[in-house]
Automatic annotation (TrEMBL):
It comes from the Archaea. This is Uncharacterized protein.
Length: 153
């Protein structure tokens, strides 16, 4: 006579394996049931984060006024102006992807500056000076973590 054993284990190891399989099944079923809610929450959080980053990017209103190479002291100067609402705090400058030795200076109020025939408030202008080199990309990394890159031709 044949006997069949269902859910009856002869030693302790078999029951632990079975318990682990049942527990794993319960966890997977619960995870599957919660998946749509978790997905919606994370995607809306991501959208909120994306909105914040977009607003911060819009605050970065920086343009290059001109780039000049000075033969006298073998340097390159990039004059930029910030027409955004916030003061820029530059943490570092990358030139062609590498951190560059640089000097940043801000124009003072006594200087009258014209760009394309229009007077520009001197406090919004700043000049970055670095050793002369041919550059194709200049990136400013701000203290708040945002990066603004420019292609120079």
């Amino acid at each position: 006579m044949k006997s069949y054993t269902f859910f009856f284990f002869h030693n302790r190891g078999d029951s632990q394996v079975f318990s682990a399989i049942v527990l794993l099944g319960i966890i997977l079923a619960g995870s599957y049931a919660l998946l749509p809610k978790v997905y919606l929450t994370s995607s809306s959080s991501f959208k909120g984060l994306l909105d914040i980053l977009t607003k911060q990017e819009e605050q970065l209103k920086i343009h290059i006024a001109y780039v000049t190479s000075l033969e006298i002291n073998n340097t390159t100067e990039v004059v930029m102006y910030n027409y955004g609402e916030h003061e820029l705090k530059i943490a570092s400058v990358l030139i062609d992807g590498l951190e560059a030795q640089h000097n940043i200076s801000v124009y003072d109020d006594s200087q009258q500056v014209f760009i394309c025939g229009r007077a520009v408030p001197p406090k919004s202008l700043f000049k970055i000076t670095f050793p002369k080199q041919n550059i194709s990309e200049l990136c400013l990394i701000l203290e708040n973590g945002l990066t603004k890159c420019f292609t120079i031709r």
